[in-house]
């Protein structure tokens, strides 16, 4: 477990994640920090879902700042894929049986009932809550489909967010599509890593993803630094009043701390 969350139902708990593969193995100017990338790709840990839960892909980004002040940027697309391991599905059902047994015991304890008279002692309210618990807080291996979170990440020297987002979405579609893409997946990964150059300052670059062309632009020497993040999301997340307050604090050179789950 990634945290002490045993009180949560098994599908609401988070589990330890790990890097399954990365390519290339290492770059001289950008050594791969497996622990840092793992933590930043899945900051909340590995999670499970069923067919009843929302499983829409989510995109987020992160920054790795080194001791010399250099930065690399990560862009992550998290999605859910079906669990094919019977062992994991059985383990999830066992976790639920243990969790529900504990919840059942706490319901009985709250009504001060003894084990000899469970059926007669649970009042109507407890029986209703127990029924809801069994109906909504359960996993049946014969009825439910189990899904687990997985992510693909692109690490870049500059924050080309929109280009990376489009490439990752196209790569995800190629992975999950019934129809295979025109070329093997490795071809597209090799292309973006070795054949697509970094655009020179003040120039735009157009390259082809898996299905559609992608355009990225790099500011010139006398322009503001690259900021490819949409302002609309900032307004949606912080709200107008908070954003004005943060901007005022910036102008007054105050210290600002952003705290997020």
TrEMBL record:
Pfam families: DENN (PF02141), uDENN (PF03456)
Lineage: Eukaryota, Metazoa, Chordata, Craniata, Vertebrata
PROSITE patterns given in the database record: DENN
Protein name (Swiss-Prot/TrEMBL): DEN5B protein
The UDENN domain, residue ranges: 1-261
Keyword Hydrolase included in the entry's annotation: no
Keyword Transmembrane: no
GO molecular function, one term: small GTPase binding
Keyword terms: Guanine-nucleotide releasing factor
Gene: Dennd5b_0
Origin: domain of life: Eukaryota
């Amino acid at each position: 477990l990634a945290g002490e969350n045993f009180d949560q139902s098994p599908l609401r708990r988070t589990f330890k994640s790990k890097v399954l593969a990365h390519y290339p193995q290492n770059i001289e100017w950008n050594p791969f920090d497996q622990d840092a990338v793992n933590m930043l790709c899945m900051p909340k840990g590995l999670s499970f879902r069923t067919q009843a839960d929302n499983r829409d892909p989510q995109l987020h980004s992160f920054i790795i700042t080194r001791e010399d002040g250099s930065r690399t940027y990560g862009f992550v697309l998290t999605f859910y894929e079906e669990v094919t391991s019977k062992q994991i599905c059985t383990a999830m059902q066992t976790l639920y049986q243990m969790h529900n047994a504990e919840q059942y015991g706490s319901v009985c304890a709250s009504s001060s009932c003894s084990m000899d008279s469970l059926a007669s002692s649970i009042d109507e309210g407890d029986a209703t809550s127990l029924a809801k618990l069994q109906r909504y807080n359960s996993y049946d291996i014969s009825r439910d489909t189990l899904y687990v979170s997985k992510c693909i990440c692109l690490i870049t020297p500059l924050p080309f967010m929109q280009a990376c987002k489009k490439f990752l979405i196209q790569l995800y579609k190629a992975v999950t599509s019934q129809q295979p893409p025109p070329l093997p997946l490795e071809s597209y990964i090799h292309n973006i890593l070795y054949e697509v150059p970094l655009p020179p300052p003040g120039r735009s670059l157009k390259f082809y993803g898996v299905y559609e062309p992608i355009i990225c632009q790099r500011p010139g020497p006398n322009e503001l630094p690259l900021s490819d993040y949409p302002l609309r999301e900032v307004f949606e997340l912080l709200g107008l009043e908070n954003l004005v307050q943060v901007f005022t604090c910036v102008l007054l050179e105050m210290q600002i701390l952003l705290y997020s789950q």
